[in-house]
């Protein structure tokens, strides 16, 4: 195996060198070799892609749909997304110049930050939240301001928002994820309208990460793009709604003046999204609007089961209204050392979870459990955790 020449050891970007790999993936890899481990670590739907969506992809393959497509995505797909957003958010997006098809939500968010942020810009991120946000902001030279929402049951309040904006001055952007990974908390319409009014008055660009919008249980999903489309970039996709995580199909919708700039970086990053995934997405959006219903019903049942079992064990949980995660306070004897608790749980109880500190400020002392798993696997995990706690006592 070749080793890098010692004279080239510093031939790396200094900012990249300082960034740690994904704490979620890193911890998952660390414990995955434990024999008999019940893994509830990754945000991976355990359902299959709906059959009619798969068949659309097969038809695309058979039709030799295997060449470079438009960098912005197939116009037919952009029209399907625009129609979907009109029906669900009541916003009219022009598929010609107000929309991009992206390689999942991850690429969408990366393209946004690298296109719009300058060194020294301030970006506001309510936490705990998906840890991708932190490095993609930092690498642009912008300042990532993590705002801990744990004192408010993991929901950003108007009072907290106004206080933080007053404290930090000229904030350029906020990235708001709802329903939220890792807490599962969702935002009702009245609260979003209050938050949106403050952001509107302060001229803050809103990046609304709505990847879990089809998986809300106790309320209808509402979007900030509905009330302030002129200053909102809506990010979503089909990873969670249609169990298409591996297909890497996302999108961005927003004002053309911003989309035209994001388009440049998007093209440099991926050239274009693969044709077959787009064929499947067209089918999903045009003829599969009801597909997430069955997933949602099953996730809600699993949520109720996991929350009930864990609360009986003494865990403190802010009940998730969406997504498929439970964010639980760890036992008091571990203090805020969620990493050692999660590691001990994996080794002794054979249950894999993610330490809450992986999700930024306010996540310390918590664990994230994904209930995107079979009833049998969840029951086994709950039994193992209960036995583990009994032994601790």
TrEMBL record:
Pfam families: Aminotran_1_2. GO terms for molecular function: pyridoxal phosphate binding; transaminase activity. Keywords: Aminotransferase, Pyridoxal phosphate, Transferase. This is Aminotransferase. GO terms for biological process: amino acid metabolic process. The keyword Oxidoreductase does not apply. Residues 37-385 form the Aminotransferase class I/classII large domain. Its EC number is 2.6.1.-. Belongs to the class-I pyridoxal-phosphate-dependent aminotransferase family. PANTHER family: AMINOTRANSFERASE, ASPARTATE AMINOTRANSFERASE. Coiled coil: none annotated. InterPro entries: Aminotransferase_I/II_large, AspAT/PAT-like, NHTrfase_class1_PyrdxlP-BS, PyrdxlP-dep_Trfase, PyrdxlP-dep_Trfase_major, PyrdxlP-dep_Trfase_small. Its cofactor is pyridoxal 5'-phosphate. Gene3D superfamilies: Aspartate Aminotransferase, domain 1, Type I PLP-dependent aspartate aminotransferase-like (Major domain).
């Amino acid at each position: 195996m070749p080793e890098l020449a010692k004279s080239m050891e510093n031939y790396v970007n200094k900012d990249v060198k300082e960034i740690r790999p994904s704490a979620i993936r890193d911890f998952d890899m660390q414990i995955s070799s434990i024999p008999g481990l019940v893994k509830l670590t990754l945000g991976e739907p355990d359902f299959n892609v709906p059959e009619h969506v798969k068949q659309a992809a097969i038809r695309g393959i058979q039709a030799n749909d295997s060449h470079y497509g438009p960098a912005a995505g197939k116009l037919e797909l952009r029209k399907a997304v625009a129609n979907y957003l009109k029906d669900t958010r009541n916003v009219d997006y022009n598929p010609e110049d107000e929309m991009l098809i992206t390689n999942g939500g991850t690429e969408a968010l990366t393209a946004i930050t690298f296109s719009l942020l300058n060194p020294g810009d301030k970006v506001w991120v309510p936490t705990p939240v998906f840890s991708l946000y932190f490095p993609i902001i930092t690498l642009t030279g912008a300042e990532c301001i993590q705002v801990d929402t744990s004192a408010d049951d993991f929901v950003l309040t108007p009072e907290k928002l106004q206080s933080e904006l007053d404290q930090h001055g000229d904030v350029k952007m906020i990235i708001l994820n709802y329903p939220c990974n890792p807490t599962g908390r969702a935002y009702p319409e009245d609260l979003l309208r209050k938050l949106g009014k403050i952001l509107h008055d302060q001229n803050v660009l809103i990046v609304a990460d709505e990847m879990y919008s089809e998986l809300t249980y106790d309320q209808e999903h509402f979007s900030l793009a509905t009330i302030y489309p002129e200053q909102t970039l809506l990010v979503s996709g089909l990873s969670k709604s249609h169990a298409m995580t591996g297909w890497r199909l996302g999108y961005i919708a927003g004002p053309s003046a911003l989309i035209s700039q994001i388009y440049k970086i998007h093209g440099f990053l991926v050239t274009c999204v693969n044709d077959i995934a787009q064929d499947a997405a067209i089918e999903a959006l045009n003829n599969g609007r009801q597909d997430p219903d069955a997933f949602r019903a099953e996730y809600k049942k699993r949520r109720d089961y996991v929350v009930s079992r864990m609360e009986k064990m003494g865990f403190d949980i802010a009940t998730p209204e969406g997504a498929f995660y439970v964010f639980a306070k760890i036992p008091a004897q571990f203090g805020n050392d969620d990493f050692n608790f999660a590691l001990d749980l994996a080794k002794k109880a054979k249950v894999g979870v993610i330490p809450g500190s992986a999700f930024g400020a306010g996540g310390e002392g918590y664990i994230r459990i994904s209930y995107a798993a079979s009833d049998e696997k969840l029951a086994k995990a709950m039994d193992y955790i209960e036995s583990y706690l009994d032994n601790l006592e």
